[in-house]
Design goal:
The protein is an alpha+beta fold. 35% of the residues lie in helices and 21% in strands. α5 crosses α8 and α6 crosses α7. This is Crp/Fnr family transcriptional regulator.
Length: 275
């Protein structure tokens, strides 16, 4: 196998792949024999944080499944602006241009933390789906979900206020990859304010202002490449109706007192201009 940016990858062992695959809903229904067949032709790859799986416009030579870590999918517009399309979580299939009969990848995929994935040659797609109806159905569901998500994003950009868009984006990320933390539910991978801006069609300044405001009101805790949701109910209300600032006492995090002293306004923290 000679995928793009192969120099940024090192092979993972087959036992590691089996162990990781068994923890994913996508492969859990398969027997050991079926799993062995599915792995034929697959190459395990390890991506360091910041490494690329592939670039937008490159020949769609492979399709993938993420086993561990997190990847960012971004598109460059004709005007040269980057748009973060989505994040890839363990168990997700990606690089499915071959399934849509597209010769090139429509976006760039980059690891936001150390990640492990499996790569199959695009020429194996027909055999892969024919031999494993469950995986074919999962791929179809994946593409359908992404189409629906794209429609939602377009509608939000057309009709919603910026505060609603940012609130909903954070809620989706927490729902997809949230991890319980001492002060709330954290997004389970490093994410910058610039990333959030590129997801929601706004600016770094606007996202920083909103997070600072929400932090003062006890709705979130935000730091360097870190967002923790402290009051899901309050943020959900903001996502539904953009309006006047809420009283801090209405937040769940403040029901037993004010936020912790270490939750100073976000304006006091360093802000990242890029991922």
């Amino acid at each position: 196998m000679d995928p793009p940016h192969a120099s940024e990858r090192t092979a993972a062992s087959s036992p590691l792949c089996h162990a990781l695959l068994r923890n994913l809903d996508l492969f859990r229904p398969l027997s050991d024999a079926q799993l062995d067949i599915a792995l034929r032709g697959a190459t395990p790859c390890r991506l360091e944080a910041g490494a690329l799986a592939y670039r937008q416009g490159a020949a769609a030579a492979h399709f993938f499944v993420l086993l561990h870590g997190c990847l960012k999918v971004a598109q460059l517009t004709p005007e040269g602006e980057q748009v973060v399309v989505r994040y890839v979580n363990p168990g997700d299939m990606f690089g499915l241009a071959c399934a849509m009969r597209q010769p090139c990848y429509p976006a760039t995929v980059q690891a936001v933390q150390e990640s492990v994935c499996l790569a199959w040659p695009a020429t194996a797609w027909e055999r892969f789906t024919a031999s494993h109806p469950q995986l074919a159905a999962a791929a179809l569901q994946t593409m359908g979900q992404r189409l629906q998500d794209a429609h939602v994003r377009i509608q939000e950009l057309s009709t919603d206020e910026v505060e609603q868009r940012v609130a909903r984006a954070i809620l989706r990320l927490v729902q997809q990859s949230g991890r319980p933390m001492q002060d709330g539910i954290g997004i389970g991978f490093p994410i910058t304010r610039q990333d959030i801006a590129e997801m929601t069609g706004t600016t770094l300044h606007t996202v920083s202002r909103l997070l600072s405001d929400w932090k003062q009101r006890g709705i979130v805790s935000a730091g360097r490449k870190r967002v923790v949701l402290r009051s899901p109910a309050a943020l959900a209300r903001l996502g539904e109706h953009a309006g006047p600032a809420m009283d801090c006492s209405a937040c769940l995090s403040c029901s037993h007192g004010s936020p912790a002293a270490d939750d100073a306004p976000a304006s006091q923290e360093p802000m990242e201009a890029s991922a």
